[in-house]
Design brief:
Blueprint lengths: L2 E6 L7 H9 L4 E4 L8 E5 L2 E5 L12 E4 L4 E2 L1 H13 L7 E3 L4 E2 L2 H14 L11 H10 L5 H4 L2 H22 L7 H15 L6 H10 L4 E4 L23 H8 L8 E7 L2 E3 L12 H9 L12 E3 L1 E2 H11 L3 E5 L9 E9 L5 E2 L6 H4 L3 E8 L16 H14 L3 E5 L7 E3 L2
Parallel strand pairs: 1-9, 1-10, 2-5, 2-9, 5-7, 6-8, 10-14, 13-15, 14-18
Antiparallel strand pairs: 3-4, 11-12, 15-16, 15-17, 18-19
Helix pairs in contact: 3-4, 3-6, 6-7
The structure holds inosinic acid.
Inosinic acid (IMP) binds next to helix 4.
């Protein structure tokens, strides 16, 4: 038995779905503990592509217990849509449980997300417009609506009316927007509550029972280290804690139950949304990586920004998450490039060279990457299954990443398929 966490080490979209799916196939319990339907895991299994937003990846394995913890924010409309679409493809939701403490994303959160972004103009964050920030704001202001409330119509009606009236005042009087029809929303969401009620379950208790029964447990992270509200590139971050510690808070178990923390990175770097990106490539090489790697957002379809691997970032992720092992994905995407570069440090405008990721944006801005160059490779590596089968330049590249990031690389992704992984002992 083992309790494993999978975390993104960069700005998200590192291919966590693939590591998660591999570990989920061996897990008895899979848990989502933070974030909401801003996440998008793409999993390719048996030739079928699944795009999961809120549902834990364990759903692809029929006997796996799938849990959505207290730290998640749930858009019930989206969740039901996901359940129905996946049910039509033959997946079962018998083993899905949602914590009564999880907060609900209401239509006013989505409206306010859009209005605030518009208000910020060219200083917008570039959110997914899923209402994530406003839903977490209400949680921390202690005025949110929780999954328990949603599934109890009388409680829900009262809380939704109080919250909705205040939000309508903000929407109309502050932003000059159009008031939402609260009666229609309450009616619609009461029906969602009725549909989702069978899934209610105390995730903290269920997880603890699984720990005591020595089950295999997988905590699947959403978003990534640099999107963490404290340790990411604030304010260009999400509103939760996508770090290993966030997983414990969000599911309701203590850190001593965790055995391994897997960090997932791409062999290069991408980000969606705004904010600084030291190794960004705004040239043909960037386009090559974007097109070859299919770097377009799962949620919004936006082209992702692309750049070289940045070991300053991944070393930061190793530290703040306490990573035990790294998975480097999409090494195959780099085939065909003449030269590869890896950022080893940053040079500040005053010429000082730093190796630790700066704590604030103001210090990150103006940092120039210091690069180490590698020979490129042209071989198709998608069928390699053992480290020794990789071309020598790839092995050198991976070994150097291990040194620079101060963490062992235990898995290497060489293609989109579930089986296209090199696992090292
Ligand atoms: P929000 O989470 O919708 O508030 O968006 C805040 C920032 O996090 C934006 O830059 C988003 O693009 C980014 N973001 C949120 N979720 C993900 C994700 O799952 N992958 C990559 N970026 C994300």
């Amino acid at each position: 038995m083992a309790a494993n966490i999978v975390i993104g080490t960069q700005w998200g979209d590192e291919g966590k779905g693939k590591a998660i799916d591999l570990l989920a196939s061996r897990a008895d319990v899979v848990i989502r503990a933070q974030g909401g339907n801003n996440a998008g895991h793409t999993v390719v299994a048996d030739g079928e592509t699944y795009k999961l937003h809120l549902i834990p990846s364990g759903i692809l394995h029929k006997d796996t217990l799938c849990l959505i913890g207290a730290g998640v924010v749930i858009d019930p409309k989206d969740l039901i849509g996901e359940i129905e679409a996946l049910s039509e493809r033959g997946l079962s939701f018998e083993h899905l449980r949602i914590d009564p403490r999880a907060h609900i994303t209401m239509p006013w959160h989505i409206a306010l997300d859009g209005l605030s972004e518009k208000f910020r103009g060219n200083k917008d964050i570039g959110t997914t417009h899923r209402g994530i920030g406003p839903a977490y704001m209400d949680k921390y202001e202690r005025s949110g609506i929780r999954f328990y409330d949603l599934t109890h119509p009388e409680i829900f009606r009262e809380k939704a009316k109080t919250a909705g009236e205040l939000k309508n005042a903000i929407i109309t009087k502050v932003f000059g927007g159009e008031a939402l029809d609260l009666d229609a929303i309450i009616e619609e969401y009461t029906e969602y509550g009725r549909k989702l009620a069978p899934y209610i379950g105390d995730v903290s208790v269920l997880t603890y029972e699984a720990v005591k029964a020595k089950k295999d447990i997988l905590f699947e992270g959403a978003q990534a280290t640099l999107l963490d509200i404290d340790f990411g590139t604030y304010p260009y971050v999400t509103s939760s804690h996508p770090l290993s510690a966030g997983v414990c808070i969000g599911s309701g178990v203590g850190p001593m139950v965790i055995d391994n923390i897997y960090g997932v990175a791409k062999a290069y770097t991408t980000r969606v949304g705004k904010g600084p990106f030291p190794t960004e490539l705004e040239d043909e090489t960037g386009d090559y990586i974007r097109n070859k790697g299919g770097e377009f957002g799962t949620i919004t379809g936006r082209p992702r920004r692309t750049g070289w691997f940045d070991s300053v970032i991944v070393r930061h992720a190793v530290r703040v998450n306490g990573l035990s092992v790294l998975m480097i994905n999409k090494l195959d995407t780099l085939a065909g490039l003449d030269k590869l570069k890896v950022c080893t440090a940053y040079k500040k405008p005053d010429g000082t060279v730093i190796k630790d990721f700066p704590p604030v944006l103001e210090e990150l801005e103006g940092c120039e990457p210091v690069y180490e160059e590698f020979e490129g490779f042209t071989e198709d590596i998608s069928s390699c299954r053992r480290f020794e089968e990789l071309p020598e330049v790839c092995r050198k590249y991976i070994s150097r990443l291990e040194e620079l990031c101060e963490c062992k690389v235990g898995m290497i992704g060489v293609g989109p398929g579930r089986e296209q992984i090199i696992e090292r002992s």
